[in-house]
Structure prediction request, 296 residues.
Amino acid sequence: MNPKYALFIWSSYGLALAVVLWNAFAPHFRRNELRKRLSEAADQAGEEE
Amino acid sequence: MWTWFHQLASPPTFYRFAEVLAPWLFGAAALLIGGGVYAGLFLAPPDYQQGDAFRIIYIHVPAAALSLSIYVAMAVAGAIALIWRMKLAEVGVVAAAPVGASFTVLALTTGMLWGKPTWGAYWVWDARLTSELVLLFLYAGVIGLNQAYSDPRAGARACAWLALVGVVNVPIVHYSVTWWNSLHQGSSILSVEGMRNPKISGDMLWPLLLSLAGFYLFFGAVWLRRMQNEVLWRERNARWAQETVAA
Prediction:
């Protein structure tokens, strides 16, 4: 096998790592953002009352 | 059993259930994927024809299997959402689509990287590759359709219809290598014949099974997490959601 194809194998694993990390962390960041938005909205509602 | 199932369909119960289950699924998935990938890269022997290029199988096959399974899961959730109008099933459809799309991109890209050393071409307009590309467009359609609606329930119902109509593509992807002359190889393990009489050596098979199991558990964990976020946003005015945010 052409040695340059080793790059293809490692690229596949690198890409898989990127997909796994994105899938693992995107919901985590979204959750933090949601919590922040909702707690700010709750604080604002409390101040208005 | 049915009582438990009905309780689980309630958003706060589901949220708490997912909160407990997701970390266990993530942990088990990390162990299985780590073990499968390590064994695939360092323990499995090279293929007698493809050499080391075959090692892409430990990423490509789980990604391709997930791309199909996630779409089927979306169609099942879509049917439940349309027939019984269950909110959690609507959430399940829209939460699964980005995950499915990401694994379809991974399957297509790793397939191209595998195709070059084995076929001599990154891409051919073969039935398997083309139908998998159509699957990616279907995922993109579901994601776009969901974002096009301002009413999340109406958006989720539209996505459920698209998931149901689009599921016809799944058997086309799976059986494309049998129905048409294809450059892509036939099923090695994901068929009844393949399970009875595996066409792959045991040394190469067990890391693949580990990796497959790990990726499926990983999808389960990510799906639960995404569904939790969607449920929290939709239920943001409910008391339980405000208490969860405040905690």
